[in-house]
Amino acid sequence: MAHSRTSTGYHLDKPQDGVDGLDGVDRLVMRAEELPPPGPRQVLIRVRAASLNRRDLMILDGTYPLRAAAGVVPLSDGAGEVVAVGEGVRRAEAGDRVAVTYFRRWIDGPMTLPLISEQYGASLGGMLAEYQVVDEESVVRIPAHLSYEEAATLPCAGVLAWAALTTGARPLAAGDTVLVVGSGAVALFGVQLAAALGGRVIAVTSGEEKARRLRELGAAEVVDRRATPEWEQAVAALTGGRGADLVVEAVGAPTIARSVASIGFNGQISLVGAFPAGGAAFDPNLFNGRFFHLQRLAVGSRTSFEQLNAALSRHGLRPVIDRVFGFDEAIAAYRHLRDGSPFGKVVITLP
Q: pLDDT per residue over 56-83, tens digit each?
């Protein structure tokens, strides 16, 4: 007979109104709770590693569009080992190394409003706990060459970068020029994946050290926006005036006008990431004479996740990790993401 299991995890227990004067991370408390055994079509996972996204900071601050459930375990991104399965489970068995999708039930096809409201680490219990019960449909086997820490970086940023390059009206083809704007986690995945898929990558960042590391990840050209503030002109010069075939726009309002100015005829711009409020407006006349596709992405489906994992395995790619924290250092991990300007993912290991 199956028994419940005690799981220690972090919970979002304090108010999220954004006006109570609390530092967002002070809303997290650690406690143990009893987890029921997995029910029909459910999987019990021992979480080995979890990772943070900007979205998780927004949830703590109460600025994320989807309000978190009271007491919810945070973090959408995690990887671990299946320890038990419920009745009727076909997609996993005990001992499998798995990650969990960002959305509970988005298998394939277009996103819908009912699907977008079911998110781990917000409306549903997330990965910052020793154990978690999830739906069978949310489980994805992870590449054999990746550690749990590496695999924990994939569900949001990795899948989002993959979707930006491979979905929409104009997916990437070998030989295309791909402009990646930014050097956050999604942008880093975008550089690696675009190069692996045969694209010529132009990256826009700030500083010589970031430029060096982006070249190591596969960027053919890097434009330093500090040295070249009007970097769309540099993109035009690097493409012979043709512009980029695809743009992965991972910054938002401050750079979107220059991304539009950089796109080529019938190219595609993918807006990715959780953008902060505010930013510079731009002249709508910028659209005159330009013909391109624009898509705003909400991470990606389970199918996209599985395709990403196949590509990572095929090319032997490894995610970029900035720093790994212990489970009892989770608060410090949040603060490092917020204040430390990491290059790569911030990861938390669990005992």
A: 999 998 889 899 999 999 999 999 999 9
Closest CA relative to residue 247, chosen from 160, 164, 159? 164
Exposed e or buried b for every residue in 197-228, given b needs 16+ CB within 10 A? bebbbbbbbeeeebbebbeebbbbbbbbbeee
Task: Determine if the pTM surpasses 0.70.
Answer: yes
Structural contact between residues 248 and 270, judged by C-beta atoms closer than 8 angstroms: yes
Helical H runs in the chain? 54-61, 113-116, 148-151, 159-166, 185-196, 208-217, 231-238, 256-262, 302-315, 330-339
Q: Which residue, 188, 308, 337, 311, is CA-closest to 248?
A: 188
If one looks up domain 168-296 in CATH, what number appears? 3.40.50.720
CA distances from 107 to 45, 78, 264, 301 (A): 20, 18, 32, 5
**E-state strands within the chain:** 5-12, 28-35, 42-51, 77-85, 97-100, 131-135, 139-141, 177-181, 200-205, 221-224, 244-249, 263-271, 292-296, 321-325, 345-349
Model pLDDT for residues 255-312, shown as the tens digit of each residue: 999 999 999 999 999 999 776 666 566 777 888 889 999 999 999 999 999 999 999 9
Residue 295, classed as helix, strand or coil, is strand
Parse the chain into domains and list their residue ranges: 5-153+300-349, 168-296
For residues 130 and 7, the answer to whether their CB atoms sit within 8 Å is yes
Top CATH class of 5-153+300-349 equals alpha beta
For residue 181 the two structure tokens come to 């704007």
- The pLDDT value given to residue 1: 44
- Amino acid sitting at position 348: I
